[in-house]
Amino acid sequence: MKDASFDLQHEFGKRMVRWSKGKRQGPIKIVLYPTNRCNLRCRFHWKKDEQCVNNNDEVSKKRYLELIEEGYRLGAKKIEIAGGGEPLCRGDTVDIMERIKKYDMYGELMTNVTLFSSEIIKRLIKINWDRITISIHGPNAKINDYLMGRTGAFEMSVKAIKKFIYWKKKLNKDKPLWRLNVVLCNKNYNKLDGMIELAHRLKCIGVSIQVMASLTKSVEKLKLNEKELRELPIHLKKAKKLADKYGMFTDADNYIESNVVKKADKMNEVIESEIKPIKNKFLSLPCFEPWYTMLIIHDGSVGPCSMFGIENVVNVKNMNLEEIWYGDYFNEIRRNLLNKKLFSFCKNCCGVIIQQNKLLRKELMMKIRDI
How far apart are CA 212 and CA 181, in angstroms? Predict the structure, then answer.
């Protein structure tokens, strides 16, 4: 089943044209990081919690429910639940998800699915949750469990996905859809076709690839060397060919002739090279995120993307979303980007955002040629 419930590019194009004419627009997408707690210890992750422990600074469930309504009134079409940890480490995450669907917004969850019981799975199916992005980083238990720092993680994830398959059929439902997300490293770069095969067996709609940034010391041991970087396009092409055979999405081809993997810690250079030949003020924006995305991390701090810094941040514990979105903080970020000024955190930009900006730029190009 094709995931056609939410067309970000089309909505983005409409709103950016209005922005370019001086008409303020609300965020299209709101991303929530409900917790930094996690039950796994991924080797390439910036945080390695041993277990699900209490975080007293987390935004309350009551405030999250209010934020969903505020987002809806601002015109948000999509809410993603992701985070620095595993969202299901919070006992009320599914309640928050139910509220999102009550407002008929598109809902996406990023998770390792190892904490999913049959009851949770049935709840998500019954509310027609839209999509789940599942973190699995190897086509077998040996690779995946090593990378996720927990023996048995692969088996738990696969078991949960099979439960989704069973209960969707049992309840005669089409949703949620799910895809796999793999962080590219030297343990899996030559196993990407195996990831596609795994995704096919688990009835996934696709496999997305995420470039690994050096956010921890342990990441250095997982980076591709020069030989592996030369070999990578071969494996990306194999993965793409296999995905096409199965009628499955993958963004593997986005990285075949790209510097994104090689320059994972110098993404600012990639961004600057992309926009250098473009003259149009809006088309040459280094990043579009602050015009359509608002991210709220576990303690309520707000920023424009997953890599934003902690200095001078605003917080939903003492401000509403409208005040933040149209306020000084976001306006200053937008002014800087209009002047082609990048931020220190841009050097670690996510490869997925780089590729998304490319797609959005193409969409915008068709709409504002005369601006």
Answer: 12
Distance CA 83, CA 167 (A): 26
What's the rounded Cα separation, in Å, for the pair 371 and 351? 29
Q: pLDDT tens digits for 349-364?
A: 777 787 888 888 888 8
Contact 127, 97 (CB under 8 A): yes
**Residues 147/43, Cβ–Cβ less than 8 Å:** yes
Cα distances (Å, whole numbers) of residue 87 to 91, 146, 157, 233, 363:
9, 21, 15, 33, 32
Coil, strand or helix: which one is 347? Answer: helix
Q: What is the pLDDT of residues 70-119, one digit of tens each?
A: 999 999 999 999 978 999 999 999 999 999 999 999 999 999 999 999 99
CA distance 139 to 131: 21
Contact 81, 75 (CB under 8 A): no
60's CB contacts (< 8 A; 6+ apart) are none
Asked if 81 and 110 count as a contact pair (C-beta separation under 8 A), the reply is yes
Please say if the pLDDT value at position 52 is more than 50.
Answer: no
DSSP per position, 4-20: -S--HHHHHHHHHHHHH
CA 261 to chain centre: 17
At 190, phi and psi to the nearest 5? -100, 15
Structure-block tokens of residue 127? 């509310």
Question: Which 3 state secondary structure label does DSSP give 204?
Answer: coil
Q: Which of 305, 278, 273 is closest to 289 using CA atoms?
A: 305
* 174 closest CA partner among 131, 119, 136, 123: 131
CA distance 334 to 157: 40
Which residue spans within the chain are E strands per DSSP?
Answer: 29-32, 78-81, 106-111, 131-135, 177-184, 206-211, 249-250, 293-296, 301-303, 314-315
Whole-structure pTM value: 0.91
User: Strand pairing of 301-303 and 314-315?
Assistant: antiparallel
**For the chain, how long is the longest CA-to-CA vector?**
57
